[in-house]
Design brief:
single chain, 149 residues, alpha/beta, Ribose 5-phosphate Isomerase B, Chain: A, five-stranded parallel β-sheet, 16% strand, globular
């Protein structure tokens, strides 16, 4: 599996540390930025990852910002993206198993380096369970494709 990886300035250091975790678990990645802790706008990076996942260039994405929320909101604006903020292993696992989430957004300011590594490992170890969850994810897609007029 190859994923798209990005962070804003608040998540830059954590993103760099998580590369070791991704290497350990055998998940390949393309780093789409940011390339320093210099202030940037998180929607730009969430969009890069979201669009790449939405187009099918990557199976999944991993975003890191201060709270995880801004990145998730921005990524979720892209058709085909189901981004989830996870602050512990259980939330990450359930997002994959029940929601078929395809973009993980981490809150660098609220998780330790050790906890972030555990969250990433739990995320990539989990698979969508389907079954009763399938119809619910299909309903999310219906909302996404709804004509608002």
């Amino acid at each position: 599996m190859k994923i798209a990886l990005a962070a804003d300035h608040a998540g830059y250091e954590e993103k760099e540390k998580l590369k070791k975790t991704l290497d350990e678990i055998g998940v390949e990645y393309d780093d789409l930025g940011a390339n320093s802790a210099e202030s940037v706008d998180y929607p730009d990076y969430a969009r890069k990852v979201g669009e790449a996942v939405g187009r099918g260039e990557y199976e999944q994405g991993l975003l890191v910002c201060g709270s995880g929320t801004g990145m998730a909101i921005a990524a979720n604006k892209v058709r085909g993206v189901r981004a989830a903020v996870a602050w512990n292993e259980d939330i990450a696992r359930l997002a994959r198993q029940h929601n078929n989430a395809n973009v993980l957004s981490l809150p660098a300011r609220f998780t330790s380096e050790e906890e972030s590594a555990k969250i990433v490992k739990a995320w990539f170890a989990a698979d969508f369970e389907g079954g009763r969850h399938e119809r619910r994810v299909e309903k999310i897609t219906e909302v996404e494709n709804a004509d608002l007029n």
